[in-house]
Amino acid sequence: MVNELAGAGRHWVVGITGASGSVYGIRLTEELLDLGFTVHLVVSNAGWRVFKEEMDFDASKREQELEHRFGGRAGRLVYHPVADIGASIASGSFRAEGMIVMPCSMGTLSSIAHGSSDNLMTRAADVMLKEGRPLVLVPRETPLHAIHLENMLKLARLGVKMVPAMPAFYHRPRTLEEIVDFLVGKVLDSVGIDHNLFKRWGEET
């Protein structure tokens, strides 16, 4: 039953931008739903373009694609169009545990760093900052120039967790799925959510 799961009654906001690596955000959403959380999903317009290019999603049938991908899991998915600035997650009075933007484009990161709340994703991130709630960004860009790094440093000094999309290999991954699961697991670690997505260093085989 959902109310027996760790995430029962708890809300997380997940943002997916137009940076390459949409599979990361999809896998994160799947895991949060499997743990019983309610996931408030926001996908930028560029994010939908990347869904099409990298995951073969039909961007013209957005809600149907999300139902096909995420339906039937223990938690509940709430999809918010990125232009819906009046959505629940745009208000600090809405009780969300925190927000994860995975992957996070440099454009979205810059908007968050400069308080430019011009769509629901950046507004929801601004809410997390002003309310002192966890905000995790997963930058996916290379190489990085000085403006990228300065924006990351600015946010890190405000308490934002930066978890760059940098895979590790000490757990001997054999598949792309294992590489993706490692990064999703590191993000969940950063907000204190238990999972079994990868074998930790020093654990028995």
Write the layout of secondary structure elements.
Elements: E1 11-16, H1 22-34, E2 38-43, H2 45-55, H3 62-70, E3 76-79, E4 98-104, H4 106-113, H5 120-131, E5 135-139, H6 146-157, E6 161-162, H7 176-190
Parallel strand pairs: 1-2, 1-4, 2-3, 4-5, 5-6
Helix pairs in contact: 1-7, 4-6
Give me some keywords for this one.
205 residues, alpha/beta, Rossmann fold, six-stranded parallel β-sheet, globular
Sketch the major β-sheet: 6 strands, parallel
CATH topology: Rossmann fold
Mean pLDDT: 93
CATH evolutionary superfamily: Flavin prenyltransferase-like
Tell the overall outline.
Answer: globular
What portion of residues belong to β-strands? 5-15%
> Strand sequence of the main sheet, in spatial order?
3-2-1-4-5-6
* Number of domains as seen in the coordinates: 1
What CATH first level would be assigned? Answer: Alpha Beta
Radius of gyration from the CA trace?
Answer: 16 Å
Number of distinct helices = 7
Can you write the helix and strand succession as a string?
EHEHHEEHHEHEH
How far is it from the N-terminal to the C-terminal residue, by CA?
31 Å
Task: Please give the CATH architecture.
Answer: 3-Layer(aba) Sandwich
Total beta strands: 6
The helix content is 25-40%
Structure class? alpha/beta
Binding site for dimethylallyl phosphate: 170, 186
Catalytic activity: dimethylallyl phosphate + FMNH2 = prenylated FMNH2 + phosphate
Family: Belongs to the UbiX/PAD1 family.
Domain Flavoprotein: 11-190
